[in-house]
Input
Amino acid sequence: MQGAIALRSARCQSAYWDDGNLRLVNYLTREEYAANPVALEIIRFFFSPRTIRDALLAFDTYSPESVGEAILKLIDARLLLECDSPEAARDDRLDSLWKPWLPHGAYHFLTKDAPYAGDDWTLEQKMQAVAAAPQPPPYKKSGGAESRSLPHPEQETDSFFKTLHARRTRRTFSRQPVSLESVSTLLQTTWGVQGYLDSPGFGLLALKTSPSGGARHPIEVYLMALRVDGLDPGLYHYDVRGHALELISSGATPQAARDYCADQPYVADAAALFIMTGVFARTMWKYQHPRAYRVVLLDAGHLGQTFCLTATRLGLAPFSTAALKDTVIERDLGIDGISESVLYVTGIGMPARQ
Output
């Protein structure tokens, strides 16, 4: 039929049963729907590009109205996509770049832009959001096992241990700006290259202060400067090799910082945010099993702790958060959220007077 629109099934979808009810999930849009099992047959039919007319002929045991209605609902849910549309191109991109880690990697996309408790929630509302069961025990003791006491460590005076013991998450800051020198030290010490190792088959591998699975270092970092002496407010990408900041956009604001971090009020008082993203291909190239996705998250965690210790040593007040509005941040950074996606945010301010 000339001029008919060709449709195909979205590749970024999965299905599961919930108490006997079929649920369809589009993990690119993070939407899920209740469905009749017949919908799976329609989705399967459109694995190859077909028209609605083709479907009406193929499913002639059903009324044309019911088949047409089902197809329109699948289109509305973006489980059927118009070929050559922007939605289909994005679906293709995710399927192509994440193929070694799919369908397990759907977890990454399904957990983006999660809802968070609002600042205006009462304690009662917050407690209603947690599980109704009692809290699990915070410590574990092996019953019946032989126990041996350990020597009690003496109070360490070494500067490293002092820094380690002083590290705390801070959420109150003074209005004083941080120095560009401190920001530079944080960037170089946490994400910068300390040297290189020549590895057979892999070439020069960067050596950093935090471990990275396979020395793949998939984490990039962006600076949101709010109150940094000698640096205009803005979003910057940290060029690791050049130890330089590349301006992405000017005029970063405290309200934007708060928006990035799920409307947490204290973030607006910070002097700078450090936004970590994952470039998944670096790790995926070497480790094609989806378990390697965990490694990318572990890498971000290692860097977060190094950042907090370094900030503490510099006399700054650090914090970290995973409560993020992923899509908003990725839009402002100019990244696609597929090949590179936001993972974690750390930040600093000058300590508030106690």
Summary: The chain has a mean pLDDT of 94. The chain has twelve helices and 15 strands.
